[in-house]
Amino acid sequence: MLGHEKKKVEKVHSSAVPSREFQRILFMISQSYGLYPSFRISAPTKSFISEWGEITLPRIPKEDYLHPDEKYFLLIGVGYHSIAPRTEINRLLLRSIVSSIFRLDWKSPTVSWLSGFFSTLATYTQLSMNKRLHNHVKWALRWIIEVLIQNRIKSPLIEFALEYYRFLLKRKIDPAYQELVKCIYDTLSSNIPFEQKVKSFFTILKEFIKQELFDENKLRKNLSNITISLGSPIGEEKQKSWGENWRVKKDAKKKEISPEELSKLAKVDPKSALEIAKDLDKKLSEKAQQEIITKQKGGKLPGYSERLKMFQKLLSQRRYIAAVRKVRMEEIIAAFRQRPPGKKALAIRGQTTWEIGDEEEELNIEMSAETFGRVIPSLTTLRNLYEEDRDGIKPKRIGHIELIIDTSGSMNGLPIEVAIDTAIALTEAARRDENSIALVTFSSGAWEGIPPSFEYDAVEDIILRLLADGGTNLRGAIHIINEHLSQVQDLAAIFIISDTAIWDINKLEVREKIREWAIKMPVYLIAIADEMYEETEIALKNSFVRLIRIPPYKERPWEIVLDIYETL
Questions:
Q1: Biggest alpha carbon distance in the chain?
Q2: Contact by Cβ (8 Å): 223, 157
Q3: Inter-axis angle of helices 508-520 and 475-487, to 10 degrees?
Q4: What pLDDT digit, counting tens, does each position of 321-361 carry?
């Protein structure tokens, strides 16, 4: 039915379609749902709509009154633009929810077809309640019901759609489907938020759809009888083609998605939201990013660079990626607040009895012997009693955090996201303890993000906008870090976050400076890598640098760092 004709495709503007009924329906829907009645009409019908503003039909309507199939697919096409998904963010939410529930690649053709199935039923549900369009809906549904009966397609979803359309026409339906149909109708006709409506719809039909997923090609073929795919099945199979179909327009006069809307998608599907955010933020530079990385035994060799200083550009343009990452930041902060206070936040308020079964390290042998003259478990044994230090009785040790983040090309992808989460957690720890914090990043050169300060929000705002690109050159950061340390009076702790592929880590000036710092203060290398870079391992020997290993795929990796921070 749909997409099987091999005729030359005609394309005309909607205003050039001679059919009076076509123009009348288009005008009524546009007036009812706030659309501008301007579309590209393609015929014969493709099996997909590939971009906003497109409607595909079996043929260009030339007679005054529409053929039933023309009317059925016209209502679907205009409904996609006016009812569901209606906006680009809703389309992305729809795809992400489908892929999440059924564990499908969110770019797959099957996700496109299931998205179209939801939108078709949602469209006809809403249009059936529109008095002005009721008769057009009635004739369209009568036609599709007869077609489905004649075709005798054996498919759970087609059978459900048939019963659902009968229900919309107030016909008698199969009792076995009655409760299911009613649940879907109540969902689609409700005023609940779009994403909640999508989740409910597919949760209710989950078992039906799972039966179809054993043969995805058959599923798509069956659905092509009643719906139109939301996206090109061919184009969306290609990893790099996303954005060519249904792309978000970057024209400043027409913004399809705001950063706030994209953060909604991040709560449903963080991976796809981050991918879209990077594309949306890439406006001022169209040059392809090249990672100068070569493989070498023992690890990756980052690109060489003589540049010691760099300038961070376009941070203000990275609004989308910041909004997506901020969703993760909120989760980190929520978990951070639930963490029990560490020793750093506690003060000794006397002693209490230590009993067998308690942690051995809590036993204060010196105090027990001094108080009782002998140490007998559960009788003359004491442990320190800690309470929250609100009076500042317990002196603080660490008063400053120096945060150094590797933003070279080898950090691109998951490592930079783990680094960002870890840096946000450390910034929140500094905020809680009222420690000063400074930020330095390095790739082909070093950049001073922010000098020692208590501007935690400013630090986090920069961290959320970081991207990974270029070579790896730690030398440039040394001078900046030295300047920062000279400005703080309190003991500092240095945290270097990297995948350890640091080109100049074993250079004498770098190795000696790191060792000098580590003798005077805690210096941590947070290694986000499955394997250490060989040169880095050599450089760390006898350096007094404390190594924290974090596999890139570890969940909540920042908790490892916070556990160590609490001991400082």
A1: 108
A2: yes
A3: 30
A4: 889 999 999 888 888 777 665 555 555 667 778 888 777 77
Q: Is residue 287 domain-resident?
A: no
d(CA 176, CA 192): 27
Half-sphere exposure of 173 (CA within 13 A, CB side): 20
pTM of the model: 0.71
In DSSP terms, 300 is beta-bridged to 295
By 3-state DSSP, what share of the chain in percent is helix, strand and coil, each rounded to 5?
50, 15, 35
> Same domain, yes or no, for 362 and 490?
no
Same domain membership, residue 381 and residue 445: no
pLDDT tens-digit map of 102-157: 999 888 889 999 999 999 999 999 999 999 999 999 999 999 999 999 988 788 89
Neighbours of 184 (CB within 10 A): 23
Distance between CA atoms of residues 421 and 408, nearest Å: 17
Q: Amino acid letter at 358?
A: D
Backbone angles phi, psi at 30, to 5 degrees: -60, -40
Instruction: Give phi and psi for 510, each to the nearest 5.
Output: -75, -50
Residue carrying structure tokens 């059925």: 72
Q: Are residues 329 and 348 in the same domain?
A: no
* Pair (255, 404) in one structural domain: no
| CATH number of domain containing 404 | 3.40.50.410
CB 472, CB 302: distance < 8 Å: yes
Q: In terms of C-beta density within 10 A (0-12 exposed, 13-18 middle, 19 or more buried), how is residue 135 classed?
A: exposed
Domain end among 264, 289, 307 = 264
Mean pLDDT across the stretch 295-321?
57
- Give the Cα separation of 465 and 274 in Å (integer): 12
Which are the contacts of 403, defined by CB distance < 8 A and separation ≥ 6? 423, 426, 427, 437, 438, 439, 440, 459, 495, 497
Query: Are 124 and 205 in a shared domain?
Result: yes
CB atoms within 10 A of CB 484: 24
| 375 and 469 both lie in a single domain | no
Which residues, other chains included, contact 388 with Cβ-Cβ below 8 Å and sequence gap of 6+? Answer: 341, 345, 346, 347
Contacts of 223 (CB under 8 A, 6+ apart): 113, 114, 116, 117, 157, 158, 229
Mean pLDDT over residues 206-229, rounded? 91
- Within 13 Å and on the Cβ side, how many CA atoms surround 442? 33
Residue at 257 is within a domain = yes
User: CA nearest 194: which of 325, 97, 77, 272?
Assistant: 97
Distances (CA, A) of 131 to 35, 70, 258, 476: 18, 21, 34, 70
Instruction: Answer whether residue 5 is part of any domain.
Output: no
Do 180 and 324 belong together in one domain?
Answer: no
Distance separating the N- and C-terminal Cα atoms of the chain: 70
DSSP character for 470? Answer: S
| H or E element at residue 16 | none
Cα 234 to Cα 19: distance, rounded to the nearest angstrom: 32
d(CA 422, CA 526) in angstroms, rounded, equals 9
Domain span at 360: 343-388
CB-based contacts of 381: which residues, under 8 Å, 6+ apart?
Answer: 353, 354, 355, 363, 368, 375
CA-to-CA distance for 388 and 351, rounded, in angstroms? 15
Please check whether residues 61 and 156 belong to one and the same domain. yes
| Tally of residues, the chain | 568
Residue 2 resides in a domain: no
Number of domains in the chain: 3
